[in-house]
Amino acid sequence: MLVGKRILLIVAGGIAAYKSLDLVRRLRERGAAVRAILTKSGAEFVTPLSLAALTEDKVYQDLFSLTDEHEMGHIELSREADLIVVAPATANIMAKMAQGIADDLATTALLATDKPVTIAPAMNLRMWLHPATQANLKTLQARGVAIVGPNEGDMACGEYGPGRMAEPLEILAAIEAHFRDRSPLKGKRALVTSGPTHEAIDPVRYIANRSSGKQGHAIASALARLGAATTLVTGPTHEADPAGVAVVHIESARDMLAACLASLPADVAVCAAAVSDWRPSEAAPEKIKKNGKTPSLALTENPDILASLAQAGNRRPRLVIGFAAETEKLIEHAQAKRAKKGCDWILANDVSPETGTFGGDANTIHLVSEQGVEDWPTMTKVGVAERLAARIAERLQEVGPGAKP
Which residue in 157, 260, 271, 343 is the catalytic one? Predict the structure, then answer.
């Protein structure tokens, strides 16, 4: 329940603005007091009268309104709330938030606030995937802004992909989780692996794969935001080190295993790295030159990091989670992998080229556990990370200290 909680809802311009009305209704049903700021573009999609009727409060729109500023100025609006929610959060308002621009009532209130902020992005998939929007997203996350969604689906413009605003019930769940416990993993230790590994053939060549590290880095960041002391062991990626996370950079699978074992004990280990299964038996000391003959390459199997952590005896994390990146028989292979490795959960995902999972920003997860298979909707990798972190917190609280999930 949200009895007594004060929510400042900012409704920006976008077709998804109609969902904000349902969100207000559901917040009010749970006892929250909701006050709304409606941007000029937001008013093209929903009316002030509709918001006022549902919030049972005045709707604020104009930064330069003498009456509004006298009765409830932008400073009070931003600071009297327990939480600010921006839904929908357009590419425009996200950019302004990231750059500190305050050119209307909504952005001025956001810049003036000292309270937590949650946003529900909503925009065309091209706008969402644009490097500028992704850079703004990372900036906001680094500042502690919570992100809900976006989801993948049909767009009003006729395209399909990530960019749909999260449903009101999803946003409501995130708001309720915010007030339940801001740090459910406080006092817990988390270990996350991410990215590819590079297995040297000679000083300039190596065996690798297409992993970008986006999912593993997002998971480490999400766990840290929930209060876990998080160590990220990552292979070479272009991803920035997540804020508030201890990062260990490695090259090879053997380096990654050593770094993971050195990071124990931990309460949870999430093996999101795409570790090379094999390495050259011997790396050439000098660059291999072409001589008209095709060289042969003898391979040796790399250590199994997931299995090593799952079978670490009294140093085993209470919850060991792996990924199954497959191109066929997704669930069947994931179930077999979970049994073989001895881990608690497997997150199965299809990495066939047509899915765009490797290197992309979206992922479709199937959580395989002792209880069965749980199909998650297609989400951004940030959304997957937030959902997984919340599930980890719930699970660790359920099993209690010393118990195996």
Answer: 157
Task: Label residue 257 by pLDDT band (50, 70, 90).
Answer: very high
What is the domain partition of the chain in residue ranges?
6-180, 189-399
Written as six digits, the tokens of 124 are 């065309």
Residue positions counted in the chain? 405
Query: Is the separation of the CB atoms in 54 and 19 below 8 Å?
Result: no
Identify the bridge partners of residue 325 per DSSP, sorted by sequence position.
349
HEC readout, 127-142: HHHCHHHHHHHHHHHH
Q: Hey, CA dihedral for 220, 224, 226, 229, is it positive or negative?
A: positive
The C-alpha atoms of residue 104 and residue 81 are separated, in whole angstroms, by 19
* Single-letter amino acid code for the residue at 393: A
Closest of 322, 280, 324, 327 to residue 305, by C-alpha: 322
Our answer to whether residue 157 is catalytic in this structure is yes
Instruction: Return the pLDDT at 358.
Output: 66
Query: DSSP letter at 52?
Result: H
Give me the architecture of the 6-180 domain, per CATH: 3-Layer(aba) Sandwich (3.40)
Distance CA(393)–CA(9), nearest Å, equals 27
3-state DSSP assignment of residue 367: strand
Which class for 371: exposed (0-12), middle (13-18), buried (19 or more C-beta within 10 A)? exposed
Beta strand 117-121 with 83-89 is parallel
> Is there a contact between 245 and 224 (Cβ–Cβ < 8 Å)?
yes
Determine the topology of domain 189-399 in CATH: Rossmann fold (3.40.50)
Q: How far is CA 66 from CA 35, 60, 142, in A?
A: 19, 12, 35
Rounded Cα gap, residues 221 and 143, in angstroms: 12
pTM over 0.70: no
In the predicted model, what is the mean pLDDT of residues 162-170? 86
402 pLDDT higher than 70:
no
Outline where DSSP puts E strands in 27-179: 33-38, 59-60, 83-89, 117-121, 146-147, 151-154, 160-164
